[in-house]
Every structure is written in structure tokens, then in C-alpha cells.
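Attaching the record inline, Q. Sequence:
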Amino acid sequence: MAYHGPATRGSKSINLLEPAKNKDALLPASAVRYDFLNRNVSLPAEKTTYWCEAFKKPSINTKQHLVKYAPVIQKGNKGVVHHMTLFACYTPFDESLPEHGYNCYGNSKPDTMIGCGQPMALWAVGGEDFYFPPDVGFSLGAEGDPTYFILETRYDNPQQRTDIIDNSGIMLWYTPEIRKYDAGLAEVGTLVGDFMMIPPRQKSFQISGICNSNCTQAAIPPEGIKTFAYILHTHLAGRKIHVRQYRDEQLVDVLAHDDNYDFNYQQLRWLKKEKTIMPGDSLIVDCFYSSTDRASLTLGGIATTEEMCVVYIYYYPRSEFATCRSLVSPWDQFSILGMNESLANFDVESTDEPNHWTKLLQNAEWTPSLTSALQRVQLKGENYHICQKGDASQFPELPPLISKYPSYVGPVKDRVQDCLSSNASTVSTTVSALEMTTTTADNSANSQVKGFTVGIIVLFLIQMCI
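Structure, as predicted:
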């Protein structure tokens, strides 16, 4: 084998315990491919850019099912394109939308974008092609289905180059062979914004998003929904993410978890077994961050150096369950920082940099007591909730979504470690049995048999516990 050379080496994160891909999910012969590709995007000299392009829907007049999608990464731009989201829009297509796209979160964002709040297809660095289950597809072309689409691409340009042109995107395959269920996608976690605060020099700081029971009661049908895949998302400081499911104030399941989160491995992950979410359930998304290498406060936001805490969940049958997120009260956080009086001179809504309220945080001295106080607010403070349908409209029958962090929610446990510990007696009993049944005639051989058997049991327990 020829030496690969210094320019053709690297590393990639993989999950050796990921459930096997759905081998029955073969692409039907009737499937048609349709591409959503950026059109010669010239990246600005900025470290992070979110670029949006609008696309009309495929020319179909009858119901079809989206059954597969895959990324298209322009050659040479693999290290620049970090993730892409194809949003479904439910308002009439606006012919005045910029032909060659716009900055997703800049002043040029069209007002008509308000109806484009539901992700339909997701890809991030480390991800691969995604097939829907054999009996599930995302509905296109029928009444109430998306009218057009927005492709949002996040670019990382740490060297702030101005010579990068990109035509990456997402390609879809859809078929007239209608499957049994329509798929839906929901996002849970925290709202993205400046009011999400992570103090510097912290080994582990927890921020939690709440999808409360009022929202699931209104959005999920009586028979419930079944989840089959998910994607976890934080930025560089993220270390662990858990999604816990509560029913009648009791923990019933851990829908998703990763105790070794990698920003560069954001693959859509299949559940080993489908899990059911019922109306009235609560979902708690717990994100843990390490800021030991940071000397200043980290705020929530879209940049790589800012943070998010979001989980996207694929489910069926499709319902109005689309967005269920929360934010800890800014005023509770300002209170422990002693900033409420100072804020009287600031416009909290202002984006004018010299007058922005975040300037006040630059003078904060992050002592252990202040950091502990902020952590308590995150886990015990008042939360503001957002509960929206796919077209970004609210549920009118819901009461005001303001509540305290649920008192019945306990601390996050290391689920795998707890499971292994509870089964430690199985390993011990097996070892004792091996020692009783093996003879001393060949200690070396017996030792190898015993070690091999124990190893198999441990591997089985790890697979069972995840």
C-alpha cells in the first residue's frame, strides 16, 4: 500500500453502536429525483454565514411520498458546508423573493418567510443519505402540503476567504407509490437567542429546554405519535445531550442521548425501537456545555462560537406537532446578575451594537457563587414556551405558556453507567459459575475461556443499555 502522504490523512467520528441501517428501505423504481441546489453563492468574509434560497415545489399535482434525501457537497467545499436544512413553506409562493438568495438572519429576510418554520430534510457534517422507513414517507403535492421550500445552508469560513463559490444542496427522491403513514418532524429544545448564557471556565454547565404537556396535548393526536429518528444539535461547547420523556410527572423513557457529543458528527440517528409520545407528555432536552477554554460569557446564537440546544425528531403519523421550545426568563437571569436596575437605561429589543444590553455583561465577574446562582435559575426559574404548528402559527386554545421548571424533573443520570451497574451482578455470577465448572488442568485455557465469555457478556450489556 502506498504511503497516503500528509495531505490525505484525517479523522472522522463514527458510532460503532449505531443501530443497523434499514436494509428494507430500497429506493422504488418509480422514484423521481429533484434537486435543491444553491446557485453560485459567493461567501462573504465572515466566519459564519447562513444563506437561504427559495425554490418552487416540484411540478406534481397529486400526492407523492418523499422517501429518500441526500447531500450534494460541491467539490472542494467539504470543510465549508457545515449543515443544511430544507424548510417547508405553507403560504403562496412569493415571486418577489430574491432570485439568488439572501442572508437568512439579516435585514434582507423577506416577511413572507414567517410561514416557513418547519424543517423537512436535515443534513449536517458527518451525515449520510437518509431513507424513510418502508411504511413512511413525507407527503408532497396534496392539499395542505408545502407550497414551496427554503434551503438554509450554514457555511463555516474561519479564514474569512472571499474566493469561495458554492452550489451545494440537497437532492430528494419522491414516488407516487403512497405508503401507509405520512411523516412529520418536530423541533424541541431551547429558543435561540442572546438570553441563553453559559459562564466561562465551566467544566459542565446545564441548559434545558422544555416541551410542556399543554403543547403536546394540543398538537398530538389521541393515539399518539411514533418517533423513529432524530438529530442532536449544539455548537462547539456542547458535550452531552439527553431527551427525557415524562408522563403524569413520571419518567417513562429517554428518547435520545449522547454523552460524548461531537460537533463534527451530526448524523441523523435511528432509534433501535420506535418510541411513542402521547398527548400530555412532557419532553425535557438537557444540554451540557464545557467552557473551560473560554475567558468570557458564551451567549446563544447562530455563530459557531455561540450556542444552541435543539433536537429534531422524525415521527409518524404527521400531526400539527412542529415546534415546542422554551427559554428561561431573561429577567430571572438579570436579577441574579444585579442588572434589572441598569437595564432601565437600555433598549432590550435594540440590535444597535453600542446600545445592546449584552454590553452590560462584559463587566460581570463570574465568581463561583454567581455561576452557581445562574445555574440554579436555569434549572428552577420561570420558562417562556413556544408551541407552533408547521406554518409557524400558534395554537389559539392554549393558555399563556409561562411556567416554572417542572419540580418532578430530577437530575440527569448517566443512563448507560446506571444500566451497567445494575447488571454488574450478572457478570459476577457468570464468573463464579465459570470458576466452579472449569478444572485446573489447563489454567491458561480456562483463563482464556473465562475472559472471552465475560467480554461477550459485557458487550451484550453495553448494546442493551444504549
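The first strand starts at residue 32 and ends at 37. The first helix runs from residue 213 to 219.

More tomorrow.
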